[in-house]
Specification:
Layout (H helix, E strand, L loop, with lengths): L1 H37 L3 H10 L4 H4 L4 E2 L2 E2 H8 L2 H10 L2 H6 L1 H4 L4 H12 L1
Antiparallel strand pairs: 1-2
Length: 119
């Protein structure tokens, strides 16, 4: 009886930790990406995405940094390298939809976005 109780307790604890892990991972991923964009660290951002088997175009809509999407956040932070990386990886429709937000940011990002939309 004692072994059954221990086994069931371990099973419940294991299942509980498995259920809550994805939310914690998602928060960590978003925080890490926001930090890489804020510090304009393109190399670490690419490495992080590759390690976690993520693509910018798949996660772009789900991540917000200070209430802004990643591209708008890169523009207001002056992060040209990471912003240019995102512009090159995102679909033209997404870049053109965010073109208005980029107009207040840095000129190299505006030029990259205009070139991406017009190509």
């Amino acid at each position: 009886m004692k072994k059954l109780l221990i086994a069931s307790t371990i099973t419940v604890l294991t299942l509980t930790s498995v259920v809550t892990t994805p939310k914690v991972q998602a928060a960590d991923i978003a925080t890490s990406l926001c930090q890489y964009v804020a510090s304009d660290d393109k190399k670490r951002m690419r490495s992080f995405l590759k390690t976690n088997k993520l693509k910018i175009r798949r996660i772009f809509n789900g991540i917000q940094c200070n209430g802004k999407n990643l591209l708008e956040f890169a523009s207001t932070s002056g992060s040209v390298k990471t912003g240019s990386l995102m512009i090159s990886k995102l679909p033209k429709k997404v870049v053109s939809a965010n073109l208005a937000f980029l107009q207040t940011g840095s000129q190299p990002l505006i030029d990259a976005a205009n070139a991406r939309v017009s190509s």
